[in-house]
Specification:
Layout: H1 8-18, H2 22-31, H3 36-53, E1 61-68, E2 74-82, H4 85-88, H5 91-107, H6 112-116, H7 126-137, E3 142-150, E4 153-158, E5 164-171, H8 179-192, H9 204-220, H10 225-243, H11 258-265, E6 270-278
Antiparallel strand pairs: 1-2, 2-3, 4-5, 5-6
Helix pairs in contact: 1-2, 2-3, 3-7, 5-7, 9-10
Length: about 280
């Protein structure tokens, strides 16, 4: 047992330095015999232990942050997730979300792994900083999603609750201002959650599953076998209309689909890709 006298001022100093709780700081100083650097290391190790202990916990809350380059040709999205909504509103958590996004913008990582390895201004990596905040807050914190998308024109949207974000890649604007139209399409993606841009982007396994489900339903309805294929094809077309972006009914004007809306905005305008992220989905 340490015989070093730990004062309230010592505890407060360590708390200010690390952001850890008072009792955690006192215990760390006692264990480290008053050595501040050793106490900081102990608190960081505690953070790593907390992170490991909570590794299986669900992270359904958090914050989605987006940055689009000044020329509109690149967009980055970071979804930093935590376990509970109150933590997502804590200043330290929100500051971390912005720091991770800033690191992505400055270093242009291609993957979450590359983003996690970036060294921040204080000399710690993104991963180490997340681990430390996990220890301080006592909740699992992870980079749930990271996207780095480039194209002719990127438009973004973040839902008001901060838990959903969309990046959309447009082509064929030909100099037209598509800011408002782009936002409308991004909001369409947020609301309608399409599985792909167009028919040819749907995963073959999804198409096969939809056809098989349709056939089963048709047979259960007692339709003749010779009609099954034809009716199933019709149901697949209905799936494309409901679930692929360009073929969806435009939410703001049901008289046209999204493809028509884009063409009306600027002849030849289309969407080539999108990324939709929703925490807790």
């Amino acid at each position: 047992m340490s015989t070093v006298q730990i004062t309230a001022a010592d505890v407060n100093k360590l708390r200010q330095q690390t952001g850890a709780g008072m009792m955690d700081c006192k215990k760390a100083l006692l264990e480290a015999n008053g050595d501040f650097e050793a106490a900081v290391d102990l608190l960081r190790k505690k953070g790593q232990k907390v992170s490991a202990a909570r590794s299986g916990n669900a992270t359904s809350e958090g914050l989605v942050s987006i940055a689009v380059s000044a020329d509109g040709t690149n967009g980055k999205l970071v979804a930093l997730a935590c376990e509970t909504e109150p933590v997502s509103k804590v200043e330290d958590f929100r500051n971390l979300a912005q720091a991770v996004l800033a690191a992505a913008v400055a270093n242009n990582p291609a993957t979450t792994e590359e983003l996690s390895a970036i060294t921040l201004e204080d000399g710690r990596t993104v991963a180490e900083t997340i681990t430390e905040l996990t220890g301080k807050i006592g909740e699992k914190i992870v980079i749930q999603e990271y996207a780095n998308i480039s194209g002719e024109k990127i438009v973004s949207y973040i839902h008001s609750n901060g838990k959903m974000g969309v990046l959309v890649v447009f082509a064929g604007a030909n100099g037209a201002d598509i800011t408002e139209a782009g936002k409308d399409v991004a909001m369409q993606i947020a609301a309608m959650n399409p599985v792909a841009v167009d028919k040819d982007g749907v995963d073959p396994a999804t198409i096969e599953r939809e056809i098989e489900i349709a056939k089963d339903v048709i047979r259960q309805e007692g339709k003749p076998e010779e009609m099954v294929e034809k009716i199933a094809a019709g149901k697949l077309n209905k799936f494309y209309k409901d679930s692929t972006l360009l073929n969806q009914e435009f939410v703001k004007d049901g008289s046209m689909d999204v493809r028509k809306f884009l063409d009306n905005t600027a002849k030849g305008l289309t969407v080539t890709a999108f990324k939709r992220v929703q925490l807790g989905a």
